[in-house]
Each structure stands twice: as C-alpha cells, then as structure tokens.
Amino acid sequence: MRTIAVVNQKGGTGKTTTTVCLGAALAGMGKRVLLIDLDPQYSTTTWLATHPVGRGVFELFYAPEETALADLVQKTATDGLWLVGASTWLVGAEKALATEPGAETILRDKVSELEPGRFDYALIDCPPTLGVLTVNALTAAPEVLVPVECHVMGLQGLAQLVQTVERVRKRLNPALRIAGIVPCRLDQRTNHGPETVAKLRGRFPAETFRTAVRENVRLAECPSMGEPITAYAPASSGAEDYRALAGEVIEQEPKEEYGTVENG
Ligand SMILES: Nc1ncnc2c1ncn2[C@@H]1O[C@H](COP(=O)(O)OP(=O)(O)O)[C@@H](O)[C@H]1O
Ligand SMILES: [Mg+2]
Fold first, then answer.
1. pTM for the full predicted model
2. 14 pocket-lining for ligand 1 (C-beta < 6 Å)
3. What residues pair up with 34 in beta bridges, in sequence order?
4. Ligand 1 proximity of 185 Cβ (cutoff 6 Å)
5. Cβ of residue 212 lying under 6 Å from some atom of ligand 1
6. Which residue in 51, 105, 134, 148 is a FRET match for 171, CA 20 to 30 A apart?
7. In terms of DSSP bridges, do strands 73-75 and 81-84 run parallel, antiparallel, or are they unpaired?
8. Quick check: 84 and 77 in contact, CB under 8 A?
C-alpha cells in the first residue's frame, strides 16, 4: 500500500479536492483507495460519508489501545473508495496531543495494523497547519503530495513546508519524501496562473507533476453533491485533470510491486 499525506499548511489550496478527486480517479483505474480525513473541518467526510462517523478518526488518538483503524473504515458511494471519517472532535486533539509523549506515531502504528493488501492507496487529507495532526500524517506516510494554489501567494510557505518534511524525515520517518507538487486552481485566462506554474517548475523541477489542475466550476460544485468529480461531471476539465494526475501517480509505483501478493 502506498500511503500519501496530502499536505499544505495554507487553507484553500486544494488538499481536500485533491484527496477526494485523485482518490476517486485512482479507484476508477482499478485501485482500492482509502481516504483518511485528518482535518478538524472534516470536509472530506462531509463530502463522502454515507454513514454517521461518530467521533471518527479522533478515536485513534483518544483511545488508541481500544481502536483499530479498520473499525473506522466505511464504504463510500464510489466503487473502490473507502473513508475513515473525521468529526469536530478533532479540534481538541491538537492541544491534547501536544503534551502526550509519542503522539506523533499514533497514526503510523494504526496504519501499519491494516490488513496487508486490503488497499492499494491510503490518502490522508491534512489540516491547514503543521501541528501534531499533520506530523502524524507525515510520520505515517512515506510520501507527501502538496497541492499548491497557482497564485503568487500560493508559493509562500512552501519553504517552511519543505523544512518541516526534512525535520520529520530526520527525527521520525527516514523514508519520507515528496511524491509530488500539484499545481491547483490554474486560471489559464490570466498570465498570472501559468507564470506561477512556471515558477513552481523552476524551483521544484523534479517534484512538480506535469498535470496542473485547472480552475473548474464543476470541482467547486461537486462537494455539495456528495460525489467526486469523476462521478459528478466525468467529462469536465476537472475530471480530466484528476484522471491525468492519477495516471502520473500510478506511473510512480515501484515496478517490483506489480504482481506481488500484496497488490493482488
Ligand atoms: N481546481 C479547482 N477549481 C475550482 N474550485 C476549486 C478547485 N480546487 C479547489 N476548489 C475549491 O476551492 C475551495 C478550497 O479547496 P479545498 O480542496 O477545500 O482546499 P483545502 O482542503 O486545501 O482547504 C473549495 O471550495 C473547493 O471546492
Ligand atoms: Mg481541506
């Protein structure tokens, strides 16, 4: 299973949209995908949950001994896409965990207990902070995916994010690496958007995906319809972009994993 944390400490960059729509696009390509909502605003959960989640992922932090991640998994309406939901309870977790020794590794331990081979991907939707929840995601996942808003302001904070990834790699998770940066919300009607993508590619040539997700009103609409873009508007540019991104993510799969027992 590839575990990927979707991280950016800025709000509104496209983390939730990317988690849900990339996840759904991967599922559409035959992958079994688990989405883990780690954001106290629980937008992924509001978008996709078909059953009540209760306290959701908060249980892992609240009662780690009594809770397994598998207990929190629910099916979504999309084939191949499962959800571990979050709730407003997570708001308190950040503060409570700050004083708890070893709290950074709770999610990692829980992810590692999932039945091997049950999922091909786990995507973790992170809050817009670099607090203990995001550090949990960075510790649980060997890979980080960074949605960046194609806007001058969008590039601000990237240096800090890269530094946090470095620190977590050194202290907690030596395998951690940036799987890719996704330019999001690209407005091609201005010079500004494409210029920002060019700047991003200049600074992070190896990390930036070829696919940029264009600004698309269908993407803004689909959360309130309870569907990922691939179901809500499969012919839209948003669906096209997330399918292209999913293709790039699949290209990164280590070749030796193909055909192993774990990947069925
Ligand atoms: N490519 C896009 N085109 C249009 N709207 C988008 C696009 N990506 C995200 N949005 C909208 O922008 C807002 C912020 O996106 P979201 O994914 O929730 O960001 P984050 O999770 O990083 O806070 C949401 O209202 C979402 O619907
Ligand atoms: Mg979000």
1. 0.95
2. yes
3. 82, 122
4. yes
5. no
6. 148
7. antiparallel
8. no
Q: Which atom of ligand 1 is nearest to the CA of 221?
A: 27
Give the residue, out of 9, 17, 39, with the most ligand 1 atoms within 8 A of its beta carbon, to mutate for a pocket test: 17
Place of tokens 């009607």: 189
Mapping DSSP to helix (H, G, I), strand (E, B) and coil, where does residue 37 land?
strand
Ligand 1 atom closest to residue 19's alpha carbon, by position in its atom list: 17
- Indicate the residue type of 197: V
pLDDT digits (tens, 9 = 90+) for 191-234: 999 999 999 999 999 999 999 999 999 999 999 999 999 999 99
For residue 15 and ligand 1, the question of a CB distance below 6 A is answered with yes
Going along the chain from its start, the domains and CATH numbers come out as 2-248 (3.40.50.300)
Query: 3-state SS of the chain: helix, strand, coil percent to 5?
Result: 45, 15, 40
CB 76 within 8 A of CB 19: no
Q: How confident is the model at residue 96 (pLDDT cuts 50, 70, 90)?
A: confident
